[in-house]
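Why this split exists: single-chain examples teach little about how molecules sit against one another. For that reason, every record in the complexes split bundles all components of an assembly together and asks for one structure covering all of them. Below is a record exactly as it appears in the raw files.
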Amino acid sequence: MTPLDAPKAVRSRAVIERVSPEIDAGLFPVKRIVGEEVVVEADVFVDGHDQVRCLLLHRPAGTTTWAEVPMVPLGNDRWQASFHVAALGRHQYTLHAWADRFLTWRHDLGRRKEAIDILIALQIGTAMIDDAADRAADDDRNRLKNWGDELRAVPSPEAGQAMALDETLAALMAAHSERHFVTEYERVLEVVVEPERSRFSAWYELFPRSCLVGDADHGSFAGVMEQLPYIASMGFDVLYLPPIHPIGRTFRKGANNRLAASADDPGSPWAIGAAEGGHCDILPALGSQEDFRRLVVGARTAGLEIAMDIAFQCSPDHPYVTEHPEWFRHRPDGSIQYAENPPKKYQDIYPLDFESDDSNALWLELKRVVDFWIDEGIRIFRVDNPHTKPFPFWAWLIGSIKARHPDAIFLAEAFTRPKVMHRLAKVGFSQSYTYFTWRNTKQELTAYFTELARHDSREYFRPNLWPNTPDILPEFLQYGGRPAFMLRVALAATLGANYGIYGPAFELMEHEARDPGGEEYLDSEKYQVRQWDTNRRDSLRDYIARLNRIRRENPALQSDWSLQFHAIDNPMMLCFSKIAGDNTLIMVANLDPHNVQAGWIDLPLAELGVPGNSPYQAHDLLSGARFLWQGARSYVSLDPAASPMHILRLRRRLRSERDFDYFL
Amino acid sequence: MTPLDAPKAVRSRAVIERVSPEIDAGLFPVKRIVGEEVVVEADVFVDGHDQVRCLLLHRPAGTTTWAEVPMVPLGNDRWQASFHVAALGRHQYTLHAWADRFLTWRHDLGRRKEAIDILIALQIGTAMIDDAADRAADDDRNRLKNWGDELRAVPSPEAGQAMALDETLAALMAAHSERHFVTEYERVLEVVVEPERSRFSAWYELFPRSCLVGDADHGSFAGVMEQLPYIASMGFDVLYLPPIHPIGRTFRKGANNRLAASADDPGSPWAIGAAEGGHCDILPALGSQEDFRRLVVGARTAGLEIAMDIAFQCSPDHPYVTEHPEWFRHRPDGSIQYAENPPKKYQDIYPLDFESDDSNALWLELKRVVDFWIDEGIRIFRVDNPHTKPFPFWAWLIGSIKARHPDAIFLAEAFTRPKVMHRLAKVGFSQSYTYFTWRNTKQELTAYFTELARHDSREYFRPNLWPNTPDILPEFLQYGGRPAFMLRVALAATLGANYGIYGPAFELMEHEARDPGGEEYLDSEKYQVRQWDTNRRDSLRDYIARLNRIRRENPALQSDWSLQFHAIDNPMMLCFSKIAGDNTLIMVANLDPHNVQAGWIDLPLAELGVPGNSPYQAHDLLSGARFLWQGARSYVSLDPAASPMHILRLRRRLRSERDFDYFL
């Protein structure tokens, strides 16, 4: 606010501040999916004791007409209103407020006691009603005119007072309110509206190279096609493929990340680019572009959306290296700088130089890559290491893509520092990898997921939980046996509306690490073809299928915000709930994969919608068992060998003698 | 962030976010006094693993050259630096950050192991050093050239590595850093730097009408002059006078707010304006403009600054009413609308209409009033009911005045809703009345003052604590007797660096209310002249003088931010501390004015700078008593009849046998 000597007196007296949701003073949009509600709150007030009116305005971005929703006071000058977002894309909202003369007049009128004061007030009021009639049209105009005439004809001040306080008149006047000196909130805020899968999805990561057909020694899209029924039967809806592009030969890594590859070694799919092409090309061994198209369609038919891997880095054999040497950093000897994090060196990878003088062309080319796969029907992208590329690049790339294709979903594979992960989510990623992979104890899980589900960051940061990835076989899975796998996938599937596993390694409980103390898989698929026997009797396939069916049947598991942790008097056990409407689920987990654990849970029944004095049923959707409970405290015992987790649906109404005809 | 199809690739990769202090996205400045520190923090990071450099920039507003302070990392991508504000007025700050190539190079070099990698790195590094030499001048240029030459001549990679990691070189390179693609924080933030009295002041409110000289029946400035030694002897430094202007006659209120005044009734000084003049004129009975000037000078000589009352409202007899009828609201019969809050009416007061079509002229005229008194030497203004005038008006008025007179102080007398009080502080008021007046219990005081001293709002909201005002004789004082008065003024003087009392009513323990259950004084000075016997034996004069002396001698009581509450196992007792450097004070209060209360306090000795195992002295600055304590827990007993409060200065060092020569 600049002091002025010759003032332009501001007559807008209402103040609008502390608007929520609002990320970084409106620099970034909040996120919703189609059909969701945006609940907007703000501190709104005016000097003196005038009555304030406050409107929430909203519209699809790019349109010009605001829809208005009256805000209602919550007390302490906090106001609230909400709207639903109906379509994909960007939606805008802002606020207007003003000291409302008619509302103030009405408020005062109700308190006036002396006849003379009421009479004068009625004179003032009828003038306002006449003015409103002039602003209105048709029916409303006539109705307002009638109100004015009738008020002028009242037999007594008291009768006039009663008549003027009529709610119908108040509503009419609100509809044709004279908006004196409106304060417009200084920012127009935005919501990015995304497809439902942004909020609720189950991912399955699969290496096509291991999808062997017959006795082939390298998998193909045809092999992936054969796996579709298997994957769909487990109830996943996103099938994520690591990079499918030609793989570099120079400095190619051998099995188990050995420096020297043999002629047969297929190399890491993340070493992208070879004589056969780059990011818009397909590794010939996997199939043709036509085969890929067939796969995309075939997957969709099976209820699966293919997610592509976007890894913006190059092998030394990538066509960019010769065609655009200016997109790489050079060493004093003229050679191109390979990726390194001293003393580690990754000579099979050349990072792109985003500080290049030719970065405009680089940005456009990378967008062309995404556009290419969009044109091939891809809408979901899992972005590899986005935290090693500049944030402004992602803001531009994702913004540009989603401007034309608002149904596109970008998942940030950024296992990095918290501020960096949050910034990526702010600049546009629909979903984010999380630290879930390493959160095992009650304290860790409670603290981390309370933060994710309750903190303001939930407006833009949507977690996607992975118990394993091709890079990470967490210690808990190495040493916890079958119960550890069951626990971790059940936690992922219930703590997160979005989750994923890297299979078949997961359901087949692959648990041997390459090095003691390390998290790399032994014989990792990153560097070699693996043959998986998905028909093994001990596979977790059915367990996972049951989890995904429960997720589909229970809206409570389809979003993250309702998560609440509850007391359980055993440090090895975790109890939490999720709610959607009348769908109330209580999860109880035994975090100890080796021993039976038991404890008393303590539920806030009123919050969970359970009448405090009635018995209720807790129906374990995993085992089918039904427990009859009453009151806040209940006893739970879990044997990890059988099932480390309950997913209990609370069913509030139980049959009783009152259901017999005699009672009706 | 707008998506662009033809990108202007942003190469500034560093991110600066969550800057503190920052009020409402920089809409309002933070406040400091001359010489104070501004500690600035921000989240700063860059993609990848490059090293980031971050600078805090600051300058007096209106100047063009930024001073730079390097920020240091606190962990988790949080950075910090600080500066001191040296002069009154506005001071600006912002941040710059970038991915620093030399720092990154140096960080990597330290981790390199292979000779060939080190050699290549040294080639790259010397080129950067040569570039820096080209940017530098004089000595630095030569020193950098030498570094380059010496590095080129090293006998071995290991020697070069060691030499290149030298801290001197790092400092030189930092001084001549190549600032590639700097990210400039999107806002320039401001600090309003105010005089010390904004942070630390003791106010005494006095009605000149009761400062009688000889056997006059109406007080005068001459009478106030006679009171100056008395007020100064109590240690106050601001003498605040209710309005001194001509008082309206129409609808003048009589004693005890009676509707009909007799000819002798002087009326309320807040009913401003009469035939004798308005806001720039003086009630003739009080003296002339010349008398007032003498008072301002006399007060200053006694160490007292006069604070004027700014009450922007008019009596029906104010010259504005006839000269500028357009500044008032009119009723249908053409009469001017008096103040009202139905069913209450204040017919002796006409509020100004800030929605007037002539509001530009109104704003200018009101500023002229303040300028007038500024020209008369006044720098402190206590603003009456600022919450009944628009916020943009105050932002403009205070901003304009302080642009020319940065030593001006405005106190907001706004006993209203919290959001409104905060907004007034944000738009420019230096100090604010608080709810202290009605906070009596341990729980109330702890919650409220923790909020005031710890919440972000402390950056702009400076509390000024009043145990009484001419309008408010709180119940606690009506029924608590002498101990209640002692307690409340001692709490005000220690919980608040700024506080004030309305006297002599306070020190003479005036405690009769006009109506049972009400808070108005019986025979209030607002409506009549009072004769006070300030020499009464039971006056609290000496007690208050002691409090103010303690405040002056103890820096801990001169600011609010260090306030901390401590455990005491008696709900009728309160324990809190304030610290400044090695000045540590522990206040213990008995909140019960009727009974002796005792309890065990529990102090965090490490935080208070007391070595845990040593005995220490707690010296009660009020009573002079000294207690020898050891350990965190100590017993305190307070008899309200003697003194309801300890102000204990902790003295850490005690003499012991080690002080004898034999030990030296």
